[in-house]
Every structure is written in structure tokens, then in C-alpha cells.
């Protein structure tokens, strides 16, 4: 089979190599999946750089989210078990963690439904307890993680303000349903959010960026608001001023979705059922902006790492032209 390998740590576009490889052999409790589509996530870039929470032995195949086919013909969503990730013709996953791919979504959309949407669901509902009528502020609203949060916020009945970087991303955010869009390249984010909320601020802030975005969030979160710390795509981990949280009465809420798989696995299944139902009625639909063949995986991961994409980029191992799955 063909598979992308990372023999050393570094930038994805420099270290990823497409090679011939032996088809992996699943271990106890695992299953071999034929990869139908593999979604590109920011953690794939961090894995290449050696900066992720886990560090698989070198060489490894990145690709942490796939829609695959089981040996008995079922179409499933899975998080491959590294080192046999999804940027290959075949991957390995834990049999107990397989989820049925929603019929309402094609392969590329199904591959993109899992990590970003589960993260958004747990962040908004379980951690922040978002309510209909509240205002949700989403940073990087046109990206893969942010676009999922925008859709889930709208589905929950929230008013959504999206923060983006650039006119094209602003157009994408409006198309996703944002009620207001702030271009951080052209606008004063804090002033714009205050203006859009009549000075009150956002009840819930969804921040996968960190750095300056977190600083802005703390300045425009509402009284008794909830600031969800999702990740640090900016590369800068903020140091919150807890005295500020105290005097302004807001909560700083951490979210590590991966912990639910071990701490509360039933909740992951319940969440998938909710997401499948939302997909069936068209309330959520992953924004797949690019569908690339397997040969384009390294360049795709690098573009995501550089923040040069909107929505999701999905690798289709069975295609040579990048056509629709």
C-alpha cells in the first residue's frame, strides 16, 4: 500500500514522505480499515513537529480522523491508532471505538464530523452549558474547529459572532450563519464585540487560538460568561490573570475532548448520536473546502499548519484527481 511516513520531526511539508509500505496488521481488539477519507487536523502538524500531547515512535503515519470501511463492509468513523494513521490506503483503529458514519454525509464530510464537532459539542453543551438566546463568540470561525462551533452554536439557538482573519474568511463565516463577523486584520475585536452586544459582551467564548485571541476574549466576555479554552493554534499559551476573572465574574473552562474516551466513553457515543441527528436534518454539515488525493496530503497538512485554509481539507486515498467522495 501507499502511506505517508514521518521519519523525523519538523514542518509537515519538509518531513512527510509518501512511500510503499506493508499493510499494517491489527493487534488484539483492533481492526484494519480501508481509508475512504482522512480529515486533516491541526494536531497532524503538531505530531509532525513533535509538539503534540503524544509522541508516536518514528517513523509514523499521521492522520488522526478517518472515514473508513471495515472488512465486513461497514462505513465507520474512527481515530486511527498511531503509528498507523489515516494518510494511507489502510489504517488501524480500536474496534470498540468505531462509530457509524452518518448516511446524510459523504465520506469526506463524515471524516470531518468527529474530532471538531465532538469538541464543539462537549465545549458548548457540557462545559459551558450554552442556552438559546445567548451570544457565542467563536475565534477562527472559518477554520475547521471554528466552523463546527459556529454550526453547533446556531443549532443550539445562540447568536453567533465569528472572528476571522481576512475578507475571504469573513465571507465563509457569513455563509456558515454567523450573525456578525469581525475581521481581526481590519477591526478592533474587543470594540466590535462590545458594539455587537450593546456593551454586554459574549456569554460564551470558544477559543481554539490562544495568544492574543485569549486576551481579547477576557476583555469582551460578559458578566458570568464562560471562556472555553480549546487549544493554542497561535502557538502561544496564555497566562490568565485570575484576578481579572474574579472581579469580572467569568469562568475559564478547559476542554480536552480526548479525555472523555477514557473517563466517560458512553458520553462520546451519546454525542455522536446527537451529531448524527443534527446532520440528518441539515443543522450541521462539515464545511469541506478541499478534497485532495493521497499525493497531496503533505502539502495539505502544511497549509492547515500555516492557517491558510478554510473549513476542512480532506485526503481521499482512493482518488487520483481529488474528486468528490
From TrEMBL:
Domain Enoyl reductase (ER): residue ranges: 13-315
Enzyme type, top EC level: oxidoreductase
Transmembrane residue ranges: none
The entry's keywords: Oxidoreductase
InterPro entries, per database record: ADH-like_C (IPR013149), ADH-like_N (IPR013154), ER (IPR020843), GroES-like_sf (IPR011032), NAD(P)-bd_dom_sf (IPR036291), Quin_OxRdtase/zeta-crystal_CS (IPR002364), Zn-ADH-like_protein (IPR051397)
EC number: 1.6.5.5
Pfam families: ADH_N, ADH_zinc_N
GO molecular function, one term: zinc ion binding
SMART domains, per database record: PKS_ER
PANTHER family on file: QUINONE OXIDOREDUCTASE-LIKE PROTEIN 2, SHORT-CHAIN DEHYDROGENASE/REDUCTASE
Name this protein carries in UniProt: NADPH2:quinone reductase
Organism this protein belongs to: Streptomyces spectabilis
Amino acid at each position: 500500500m501507499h502511506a505517508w511516513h514521518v521519519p523525523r520531526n519538523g514542518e509537515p511539508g519538509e518531513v512527510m514522505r509518501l512511500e510503499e509500505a506493508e499493510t499494517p496488521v491489527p493487534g488484539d481488539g483492533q481492526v484494519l480499515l480501508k481509508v475512504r477519507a482522512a480529515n486533516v487536523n491541526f494536531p497532524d502538524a503538531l505530531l509532525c513537529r513533535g509538539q503534540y500531547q503524544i509522541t508516536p515512535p518514528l517513523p509514523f503515519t499521521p492522520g488522526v480522523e478517518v472515514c473508513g470501511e471495515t472488512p465486513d463492509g461497514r462505513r465507520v468513523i474512527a481515530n486511527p491508532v498511531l503509528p498507523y494513521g489515516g494518510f494511507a490506503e489502510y489504517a488501524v483503529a480500536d474496534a470498540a471505538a468505531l462509530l457509524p458514519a452518518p448516511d446524510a454525509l459523504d465520506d469526506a464530510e463524515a471524516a470531518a464530523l468527529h474530532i471538531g464537532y465532538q469538541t464543539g459539542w462537549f465545549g458548548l453543551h457540557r462545559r459551558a452549558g450554552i442556552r438559546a438566546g445567548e451570544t457565542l463568540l467563536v475565534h477562527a470561525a472559518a477554520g475547521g474547529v471554528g466552523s463546527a462551533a459556529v454550526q453547533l452554536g446556531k443549532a443550539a439557538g445562540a447568536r453567533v459572532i465569528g472572528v476571522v482573519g481576512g475578507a475571504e474568511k469573513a465571507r465563509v463565516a457569513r455563509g456558515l450563519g454567523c450573525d456578525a463577523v469581525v475581521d481581526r486584520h481590519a477591526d478592533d475585536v474587543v470594540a466590535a464585540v462590545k458594539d455587537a452586544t450593546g456593551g454586554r459582551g459574549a456569554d460564551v467564548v470558544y477559543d481554539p487560538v490562544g495568544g492574543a485571541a485569549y486576551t481579547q476574549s477576557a476583555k469582551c466576555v460578559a458578566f458570568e460568561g464562560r471562556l472555553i479554552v480549546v487549544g493554542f493554534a497561535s502557538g502561544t499559551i496564555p497566562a490568565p490573570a485570575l484576578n481579572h476573572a474574579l472581579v469580572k465574574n467569568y469562568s475559564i473552562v478547559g476542554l480536552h475532548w480526548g479525555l472523555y474516551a477514557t473517563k466517560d466513553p458512553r458520553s462520546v457515543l451519546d454525542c455522536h448520536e446527537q451529531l448524527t441527528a443534527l446532520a440528518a436534518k441539515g443543522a450541521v454539515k462539515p464545511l469541506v473546502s478541499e478534497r485532495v488525493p493521497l499525493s497531496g496530503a503533505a502539502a495539505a497538512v502544511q497549509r492547515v499548519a500555516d492557517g491558510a485554509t478554510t473549513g476542512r481539507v480532506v485526503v481521499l486515498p482512493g482518488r487520483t484527481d481529488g474528486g468528490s467522495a
